[in-house]
Amino acid sequence: MRVGLVCAHDSSYRHADGPPVGTQQHIARVAAELAGRGHDVRLYERLDDAGQPATLDADGYRVQRVPAGPSSPLSTAELIPHVTEFGRYLADDWAGAWRPEVVHGHYWIGGLAAAHAVRETDLPVVQTFHSLGVEQLRHLGRQYDGPGERIPLERALTRAVDIAVAQCNDEVDELTRMGLQRSSVAMVPAGVDIEQFHPDGEAAPREQRARILSVGGLSPGNGQEDLIRAMRLVGDAELVIAGGPPAEQLANHAEARRLRELAEQTGVADQVRLVGAVPHDQMATWYRSADVVACTPHYSSAGRVSLEAMACGVPVVGYAMGGLADAVVDEVTGRLVPPGDVRTLGVSLRRLLADNAGRFAYGHAAVDRVRSSYTWERTGGALERLYERVVSRRKPVEA
């Protein structure tokens, strides 16, 4: 099957044409998994550097960079005026020798470009939002900084696609509230690279006292503030926060300074350590060094960090929402606590750190859960079946 994946964001996440980093790893891994299954896959992303090649072959699929807008990095809000141009390029490209049988848009910007490209064709469109503006607004409140056009455009996009792919049950519910029929929403969770994330291997150096690890960008929406406040209830343990800018830039980072000031004010400064950005290929060593991984984002549709930690055999304590509520089985692979409940968060961390046998059992169950339900092989197979379904729907029935 010929599959066109559309991610209208910049291509700058491929440093020096190396492997993808950040959230776009999901899309690149989907492309590689589908290509490994014998499909002809092309991934379209925006050209943001005139010095980059227009095409790139990677892991069995082709990356095609679309010249839409200036050849420089743009924010999501700055991308909106160039969506039509991106869609026109796709339509012209697909009018040639290579034409996809199914188009899969990623993020709302990519979905809009894909929908524009196919509007005068019979090509089916599958859409993965990865996050929804209306959900982010609800959970983040004043901290939500998405473009004002996003929410109405996402609602319009739900009416232009054949099937929307949700990554968790909360997202399924949200998409149906936005007007999609339940039969037009498919739940396909993100996968985990179990060859990279597994219990056996090196661990990052650590102190003798227990370690709680938090992974995520340094922003108020990621809940590191809740964890710092909860440390007062945990006792003698260290909280390591990985993410944000490189370590040498943390001193000039506003959120890093705010978190350190909060740790001072709450009397846990000697227990909190910010290590800055960690390369993704080194994350497994950090997960293995932890006794518990704490996941406290105010919004998370995929729950990627919890899945990677579980794949490394580490129990997770996290907020019962979004992808975390699906991935973590309470009192089986970790503990789920009500979002924003700092007291319960601290008590749960303290009790789990004191329970060596419980952590051991949770860790083993976590590995089993990931390997049975969250591998990229399962994700690729689910998408393959979904594509076959939408293509068969669009094909006319022969007499």
Automatic annotation (TrEMBL):
Q: Which residues form a coiled coil?
A: none
Question: Do you know which Pfam families this protein is assigned to?
Answer: Glyco_trans_4_4, Glycos_transf_1
Matching InterPro entries, A to Z? Glyco_trans_1, Glyco_trans_4-like_N, Glycosyltransferase_grp1
- The segment(s) forming the Glycosyl transferase family domain are 205-357
Instruction: Report the enzyme's class at the first EC level.
Output: transferase
Give the top-rank taxon of the lineage listed in the UniProt record for this protein.
Bacteria
Q: Which GO terms describe its molecular function?
A: glycosyltransferase activity
Provide the alphabetized UniProt keywords. Answer: Glycosyltransferase, Transferase
Cite the Gene3D superfamilies for this sequence: Glycogen Phosphorylase B
Question: Domain Glycosyltransferase subfamily 4-like N-terminal spans what residues?
Answer: 22-191
User: Could you tell me the EC number(s) of this protein?
Assistant: 2.4.-.-
Q: Which PANTHER family match?
A: SULFOQUINOVOSYL TRANSFERASE SQD2
- Name this polypeptide is given: Glycosyltransferase
In which organism is this protein found?
A: Micromonospora vulcania
